[in-house]
Amino acid sequence: GRPEPLPDFGGDNRDQRGYAYWSALWLAQCYRVAVPGAVLAVATDWRQLPVTTDAVQAGGWTWRGILSWAKPNARPQLGRYRQACEFVVWATKGSRTIEGESLQGWWLVDAPRDRQHQTQKPLEVYRDLVRVAPKGGLVLDPFMGSGTTGVACLMEGRRFVGVEMSADYIEVAKRRLASVVGKDEQQQPVLFGMENSQ
Question: Residues 6 or more apart from 33 whose CB is under 8 A from it?
């Protein structure tokens, strides 16, 4: 039979104006708590790409570019082009010291088929993304979902703080993080959840 549908998550039905305004608010809060030179990475699809770049700048960040993830296994659409790419808008809190490794700006990776979240991203892509933070650096994911960013951080030697409103996804993230967390106290992720008001 068909697998059980994945739980819904809030906020995915905003129009572009509402999305831009809401995003500028939370991006400004991320800017407030980030260290100078911190990197921001915001995943988006083609529909919200233009307003995401605007919201990033409205939140105070210095926009640096767009990274792309191409999905060879994207669903075909008769008479149209496949929507085979997703994007990451990246920015910094002011200037950034030029040091560290040269990181890839695009990926050719299948979308996960064994997803635990409706918009789950490939671990391979996120392991690359978190490497922009220094070893032992702290990564904040204000929309943790199923915990892919956290798993990537633990695998790449970065510390992680995750925030999630959905009780369902907090449990999924806890399980995924527990499967990779080590005994080292420095590696323990910090998760913040909010009770669902429904």
Answer: 140
pLDDT band at 2 (very low <50, low <70, confident <90, very high): very low
Residue among 153, 156, 135 at smallest CA distance from 191: 153
- For residue 8, is pLDDT > 60? no
Residue type (1 letter), 27: L
- Environment class of residue 15 by beta-carbon count within 10 Å: exposed (0-12), middle (13-18) or buried (19+)? exposed
In the DSSP assignment, the letter for residue 70 is: E
110 φψ region: left (φ > 0), alpha (ψ -120 to 50), beta (else): beta
Average confidence (pLDDT) over 87-106: 91
Please, are residues 141 and 193 in contact by the beta-carbon 8 Å criterion? Answer: no
pLDDT for position 166: 84
